[in-house]
Amino acid sequence: MARSALSRDEVLDTAAALVREHGPGALTMRRLAAELGTAVTSIYWHVGNRESLLDALVTRTVTDLGTIRPRGTTPAERIVSVARALRRALRERPHLVAMVHERGLTERMFLPAQRALVHEAHAAGLRGEHAARAVRALQFQVVGYVLVERNRERSPAQSPAEEELWREETAEAAADPDLTRALAAPIDTEALFVDSVRALVEGLLTRAGGGAADTGDGTVGRGPYSH
């Protein structure tokens, strides 16, 4: 028996969940109706045809990435928080982000995060070209990191794996056993991302301002142009 109450938001929520888990190809009106326990005609009434549904999902994805809000007490800490939130948002919805890209709305999707970064760059004293370079460097860092993560996750099993290669007896192992032991361990991608972003933020702020950059982890970093 078909259900009687259904909202547009519920249709979009369920459609987005299907796309996130299985990709756009899995999203058919019949399957969506089955997931919702309703008739296909009810889906059409709420969101139109499949193309209209996909357009609505793209619009929602763009809106969702506009909800990123900086956290922290210093500009550097808040910049790092924006980068972390953007990475998390991209990681949580790769298929939806791909749909946004296919419809030529990638730049619009990133605009809210860019605006948040501009605000924090200004708060840190960056202006003009320095601020623009910082915003773009951070965006490229986040997107590039996510692409590398996705590529590693989707690549076929490697034999020998990186861990196995570094466990072999090498000159490096003899010279720096702690290094080789660390490289043979599984990668903590979150910690690696935070380290790389903090280093990037520290360098950008220090080179532009000539001073120290508080990276939000209780330390104060000084770049190559500080005295």
Q: How many β-strands, per DSSP?
A: 2
Helix proportion: 55-70%
Tally of helical runs:
12
Q: How much of the polypeptide forms β-strand, as a percent range?
A: under 5%
What do the pLDDT scores average to? 85
Low-confidence stretches: 218-227
Query: What is the terminal-to-terminal distance?
Result: 74 Å
Largest sheet: 2 strands, antiparallel
Structural class: mainly alpha
Q: Note the run of SSEs as H and E.
A: HHHHHHHHHHHHEE
Radius of gyration: 22 Å
Strand order within the widest beta sheet: 1-2
* Overall spatial form: flat
Describe this structure in words.
With 227 residues, the chain is mostly helical. Helices cover 70% and strands 2% of the residues. The C terminus is likely disordered. It is built from twelve helices and two strands. It starts with 7 loop residues before the first helix and ends in a 6-residue tail after the last strand. β1 and β2 form a beta hairpin. α7 packs across α8. It has a two-stranded antiparallel ribbon with strand order 1-2. The protein is flat, with a radius of gyration of 22 Å.
